[in-house]
Amino acid sequence: MDNRSLVARSLAAVWHPCTQMKEHERVPLVPVARGQGAWLEDFEGRRFVDGVSSWWVNLFGHANPEINAAIADQLGCLPHAMLAGFTHEPVVALSERLARLAPGRLGHAFYASDGASATEIAIKMACHAWRNRGHPERNLVVHLEGGYHGETLGALSVTDVAIFRDAYAPLVRRNLLAPFPAQRAGSREFQCESCAEEAAGALARLLEERGESVAAMIVEPLVQGASGMRMYHPRYLALARELCDRHGVLLIADEIMTGFGRTGTMFACEQAGIAPDLMCLSKGITGGYLPLSCVLATDEVYGAFYDDEVSRAFLHSHSYTGNALACRAALAVLDLFERGDVIAANRAKAARFDALAAPLAAHPAVRDWRRLGMIWAFEVAGAGPGFARRAFEVALREGALLRPIGPTVYFMPPYVTDEEAFAVLVRAAMSIADELGTRE
Ligand SMILES: Cc1ncc(COP(=O)(O)O)c(C=O)c1O
Question: Which CATH code, of 3.90.1150.10, 3.30.70.1140, 2.60.40.10, 3.40.50.1000, is assigned to 32-63+341-436?
C-alpha cells in the first residue's frame, strides 16, 4: 500500500464525515498507516502529532499496549452479546465503576455507541420521565447558545451551530435557547463571574416564563468544544443547577468531550461542585478505541420508569448496546487512570506545556489565549475565510495534525504526549500565526 493509491481509492469509495468532498481537490486527504502513542504515520514514514486526539477521543495513545491486551483477552472470551435479557461481566463492572466515579448518585448506566446517541437518549429519558410522572406537557429542552451535542435530529434540536443545523431546520424541533455565559471565548471572559451571573439571570427569566413546559436543560460543562473551545466560569453551572431544582427541570451534563480528565478533573461538573440528573459520556470512555457511549441516571429518573406497565419502560435500544469489547476497553482506560494518578500527572504536565507554549501565547497575532486542563486554544487575528483549511495544511507541513474551528486554533493532545511532541504542536501553531495572522 502507498499514500497515493490509498487516497485515490478512498476518494472514490468513502464519503468522509463533516467534509465537502470537492474540497479534497485542494486539501490533502491524509492516509494513516499506523499510530503509536501521540503520533500517526503515513505509508511513507511521514509522522504527525495527533494534536486533536483523533476528534477528542484518544487519551492514552494509539496502540496502547494495555488497552490492546484487554481487548485481545475479551476477543477470545466474548466479543459481543445482546444486552436486552442478557448481561455480561464487562458491562456490569463498567457500570459499577462509572457510578463510583461520577459526581452525585448516578447509579444506572444506559449504553449506546456514539455521542449523539447519548444525547438522544438523555432527551428521550428526561421527557419520558416527565410523561410517566403525569406531565407530558413538559417536553422542551433548554440549551445554550453555541452548544453542540451531536448531529442526529434530536441532538440537532439542542445544537446551536448553524453550519450543522440550517440545512435540516425543517426536520428539527425547536427547543429553548439560553444565552452563553460569556460574551467571548477569551481568557478574560473565562474568568468572568459576572458574565456567568448575568447569563444565569436570563436563564432564571426563561424558566419563570416557560419552566412548566421544560423537561430538561442540557449543557457542555465549562467548555463548548465544537463552537470553538468557548470556556465559561463554573459559577454558571452552580446557578443553573439551583434554577433547575427550583423549576423541577432535569439537568443533563453532556460530558462527551469534557469527561475523563479533559478539563483537569475527571468530570468538568466537579469544578462547579454540582451533580447532574443525567450525564452523557462517550469519546474518551474507550480511550479512542471503540464506539461506546453511555447515559448515567439517578435513582429518581430510573424510578420514573420502574413499573408493571411495559409502555412506561425506556424502550430504546441499539444493536451494539453495551458491546463487551468496548466495555472492556473502557475498563482498561479506568485502570490506566487509577494506576497512573493521571489527573494529578496531567496537572503537572499541562504546567510544563504552558511554559513551552509561552512564546506562542505572546505572539502578536494570537488573541484570547486560554487553557483548561488539557485543552489549549486561541484565536488568530486576521483569520479570514479559508483560514481553517490553510492552517490545517501549514500544520501538516510542520508534522502536526491540527484542525482549527473557524479562527480558533486548539490543541487537545492525548495524555501520553511528551514535551518533544508538544513542541511540534507549538511550532506548527507559530507557523500558522506567522504566515496567516495579522499583527495589529
Ligand atoms: C459535547 C459533545 N456532545 C456530543 C458530541 C457528538 O458525539 P459523536 O460525534 O460521537 O456523535 C460531541 C462530538 O464532538 C461533543 O463534543
Answer: 3.90.1150.10
